[in-house]
Amino acid sequence: xxxVYLYAKASAIAGKRVYESKAQTLNEVISEISEISSxxxxxxxxxxxxxxxxxxxxxxxxLFDDTRVDVLPRFAGG
Length: 78
Known about the structure:
Strand order of the largest sheet: 2-1-5-3-4
Largest sheet: 5 strands, mixed
Strand content: 25-35%
Order of helices and strands: EHEHHEEE
Helix content: 25-40%
């Protein structure tokens, strides 16, 4: 199970900071989280994603039980 850490507005929308996911790819994590609220999907489209502390542009990247995913919304000014 991957552990997903939500920051800033993503955390506020979800109502929690940590989300556990059984998803097998980053894309599946994004799909799961986007279902939390109608506000989440548009926000996720502007987020950066780190997988095990490294920026991950490959949304088909495989995730494992001990994988950490950070969801980083844009901060002020960018």
